[in-house]
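Structure (tokenized):
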């Protein structure tokens, strides 16, 4: 076996440092089917991953706990790993016997799953949750099931809703906390009461005996374990000592039944002035609530009647912000049918994460993936779960110190400042020109693309009289990614102030290299704005704006040449890929 270099931390996993490690990583990522280049239609791109995880160039993120990754790195059978596999197998067999009543079909499915399972068990290399996902897919397809727990989950929700009208609920949630009411002012008192109520609701959301057994008798035993939970909540809900922040919170539930209390928590957070995005599973994953449960569950239809449901799996930043500004409670799917796996989450989920200020994640699986993983994430995280012994665990993980969230207000303010400069230019009698050009479409050429762009814009400024030229490369702010920039520029582009919209041509690029005293490199030969999906999106906007303002000129390649390209890539400035002809 080829040697793998010793790693002091899972944060040391990088491509390009050791050929044997590269080979192992590629083998591992492809075997677990989470490698983007091997399966770009199902796995998140590096740019999309950076919406959620703070990653360096070529750094590898693995969606499991540090301890599990170290076990898998050894590529040996391990007692802990074998225990996880065996527990996984027991749950799968229990599921098969629950949903498949025909003896012949049951034996067939069990035997098929056993073949797949034993292969992984003999050579442990697959993350247990990924193996679980594969097995569930086999079981559901072979049994022609979509959600075998649909009725069970509805029953859990009904029991939980029924509990809300009980005296036990009113006594537990409504009792006055006289001993905890010391405060300096009304706002502090209000915040303290909100935290106390949230603590009680979180306690109920973890107490599954309510919806599984109709039993509330021992709830105080878990409530008393939650000492210090208010401090955890305070860190997340009142960052940097803010007394009345307005946060966007991405909330990840983990259990039907418990979801009833999660919705109450979301509504309490909304009353506090926050916005909540509730992220449910895309399809069956045991007792986890799914995006589609509301279709068959009257309880959820009632509880979520005022929520905004977003079915689009690849929503744009602009559309997501529009929904969040119109509705305080938004429901999305995370795009997966498994334990939280950021590689398999949808574009919509990744953008929801990026637009949030705080992640609240419930359940052991989320705790392991987010807290017991050494990587820093791009947003603050509160994780809470109850283990097999009934012990409550909760943690706060601060976002990476290297990450700064660019808010919608900041982006809009910057767009308005550019618009003001455009107005001043027009008041001086100048024509306003916007120049759209390739920036990141050619891999590894971003710095050169900016140099080409700046060179040509400077040339135009010397050549054209009384023309105010907007060069996008001159308006970049640290922390802004492609989504932020495209959102900002669309505000500018739809201002109605552009007289000339120029798109980069082959001759523009050739002139730039000539001015730099260079020959055109082969990788740049024949390139123009049509090789950028960012420019393609901008051409679409330009044509729409020209209908409103017919006097606006569009200069550059024929518009028809642009529209062979897809929507700009997630988190990228531009995306060079072209859809195959069908």
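Design, position by position:
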């Amino acid at each position: 076996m080829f040697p793998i270099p010793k790693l002091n931390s899972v944060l040391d996993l990088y491509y390009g440092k050791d050929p044997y490690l590269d080979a192992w990583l590629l083998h591992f990522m492809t075997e677990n089917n989470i490698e983007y280049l091997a399966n770009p239609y199902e796995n998140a791109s590096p740019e999309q991953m950076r919406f959620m995880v703070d990653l360096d160039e070529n750094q590898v993120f693995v969606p499991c706990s540090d301890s599990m990754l170290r076990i898998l790195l050894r590529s040996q059978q391990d007692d802990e790993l074998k225990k996880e596999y065996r527990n996984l197998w027991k749950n799968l067999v229990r599921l098969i016997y629950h949903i498949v009543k025909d003896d012949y079909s049951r034996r067939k499915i069990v035997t098929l799953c056993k073949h797949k399972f034993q292969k992984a068990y003999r050579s442990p290399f697959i993350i247990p949750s990924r193996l679980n996902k594969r097995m569930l897919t086999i079981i559901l397809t072979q049994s022609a099931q979509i959600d075998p727990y649909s009725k069970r989950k509805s029953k859990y929700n009904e029991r939980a809703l029924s509990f809300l009208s009980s005296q036990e609920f009113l006594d537990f949630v409504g009792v006055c906390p006289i001993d905890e009411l010391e405060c300096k002012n009304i706002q502090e008192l209000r915040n303290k009461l909100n935290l106390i109520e949230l603590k009680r609701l979180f306690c109920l959301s973890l107490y599954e005996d309510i919806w599984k057994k109709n039993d509330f008798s021992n709830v105080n035993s878990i409530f008393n374990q939650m000492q210090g939970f208010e401090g955890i909540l305070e860190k997340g809900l009142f960052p940097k000592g803010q007394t009345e922040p307005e946060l966007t919170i991405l909330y990840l539930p983990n259990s039907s039944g418990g979801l009833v209390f999660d919705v109450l928590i979301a509504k309490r957070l909304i009353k506090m002035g926050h916005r909540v995005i509730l992220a449910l599973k895309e399809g069956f994953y045991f007792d986890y609530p799914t995006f589609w449960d509301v279709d068959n569950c009257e309880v959820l239809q009632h509880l979520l009647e005022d929520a905004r449901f977003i079915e689009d799996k690849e929503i744009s930043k602009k559309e997501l912000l529009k929904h969040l500004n119109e509705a305080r409670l938004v429901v999305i799917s995370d795009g997966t049918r498994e334990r939280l796996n950021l590689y398999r989450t949808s574009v919509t989920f990744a953008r929801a994460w990026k637009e949030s200020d705080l992640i609240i994640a419930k359940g052991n699986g989320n705790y392991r993936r987010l807290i017991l993983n050494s990587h820093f994430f791009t947003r603050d995280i509160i994780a809470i779960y109850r283990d097999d012994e009934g012990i409550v665990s909760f943690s706060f993980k601060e976002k990476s110190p290297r990450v700064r969230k660019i808010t919608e207000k900041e982006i809009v303010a910057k767009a308005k400042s550019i618009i003001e400069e455009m107005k001043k230019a027009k008041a001086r009698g100048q024509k306003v020109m916007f120049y759209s050009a390739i920036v990141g479409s050619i891999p590894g050429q971003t710095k050169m693309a900016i140099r080409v762009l700046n060179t040509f814009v400077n040339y135009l400024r010397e050549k054209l009289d009384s023309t105010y030229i907007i060069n996008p490369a001159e308006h970049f702010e640290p922390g802004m990614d492609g989504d932020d920039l495209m959102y900002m520029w669309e505000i500018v582009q739809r201002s109605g102030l552009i007289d000339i919209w120029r798109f980069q041509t082959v001759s523009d690029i050739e002139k730039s290299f000539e001015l730099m005293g260079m020959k055109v490199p082969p990788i740049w030969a024949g390139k123009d704005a049509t090789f950028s999906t960012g420019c393609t999106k901008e051409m679409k906007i330009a044509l729409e704006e020209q209908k409103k303002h017919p006097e606006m000129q569009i200069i550059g390649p024929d518009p028809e040449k642009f529209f062979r390209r897809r929507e700009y890539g997630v988190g990228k400035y531009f995306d060079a890929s072209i859809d195959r002809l069908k």
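Reviewer-requested clarification: The radius of gyration is 27 Å. The chain is about 45% helix and 10% strand.
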